[in-house]
Q: What sequence folds into this?
């Protein structure tokens, strides 16, 4: 499996606090069947600035340590890029990393409590310039809980969605779990990722969520697709078939 959202780099944000913790997370991910992780430190969130060159250097350093410790896990460059003005310009100047530094897919985090009015303009501009935004954990946003059609409209513009494994398993609460299920049923989820920050509270585990997603979708193959083929295409910068989302009426609650 491939995890495109993981805060495994030590000491760069609110993820792994030490190299030792990064190694514990890496071993845990590998045991779960994950063979590739995109390291996605927070950036452009008003607190953290993790430019591409810095992330690449830290990824290379951690990859070397993993090999020394015989942990056969591949790391790739990425970032958890927070929505802000002029994202495209910041990508071009190296302030924000796209997934695998390929400038094809961008992990985009919306504000935790709102959906800014300018989000459609940013998505349109990114798509116009060949970059597909992947909206991270929309199922945890209370605005989307109250009106899921907002997310449907963003997906209809060409955005993709990444749902967090722990949302599907219910560890973020009942409301978030219900929203994740609704998004899965309406074909608004394209990738499942861990958004892991630690080895205990928010671990890098995908397999449990895949099993539950398979039950929701009625297809293990479709659920597995979200942690294998789809993220593989994203890493390669390839275009892939995206299922047509089911229309959701304005005002639909999770």
A:
């Amino acid at each position: 499996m491939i995890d495109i959202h993981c805060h495994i780099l030590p000491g760069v944000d609110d993820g792994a606090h030490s190299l030792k913790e990064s190694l514990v997370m890496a071993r845990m991910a590998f045991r779960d069947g994950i063979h590739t992780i995109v390291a996605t430190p927070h950036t452009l969130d008003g607190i953290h600035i993790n430019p591409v060159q810095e992330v690449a250097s830290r990824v290379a350093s951690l990859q070397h340590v993993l090999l020394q410790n015989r942990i056969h896990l591949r790391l790739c460059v990425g970032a958890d890029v927070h929505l802000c003005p002029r994202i495209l310009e910041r990508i071009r100047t190296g302030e924000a990393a796209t997934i695998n530094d390929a400038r094809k897919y961008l992990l985009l985090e919306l504000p935790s409590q709102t959906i800014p009015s300018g989000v459609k303009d940013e998505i349109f501009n990114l798509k116009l310039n060949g970059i597909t935004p992947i909206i991270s954990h929309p199922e945890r946003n209370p605005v989307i809980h109250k009106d899921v059609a907002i997310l449907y409209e963003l997906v209809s513009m060409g955005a993709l969605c990444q749902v967090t494994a722990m949302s599907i398993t219910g560890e973020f609460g009942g409301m978030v779990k219900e929203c994740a299920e609704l998004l899965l049923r309406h074909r608004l989820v394209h990738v499942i990722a861990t958004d892991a920050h630690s080895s205990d509270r928010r671990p890098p585990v995908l397999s449990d969520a895949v099993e539950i997603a398979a039950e929701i979708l009625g297809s293990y193959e479709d659920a597995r697709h979200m942690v294998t083929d789809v993220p593989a295409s994203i890493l390669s910068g390839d275009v892939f078939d995206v299922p047509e989302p089911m229309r959701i009426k304005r005002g639909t609650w999770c």
Observations:
- The CA atoms of residues 55 and 77 lie 6 Å apart.
- The first strand starts at residue 2 and ends at 6.
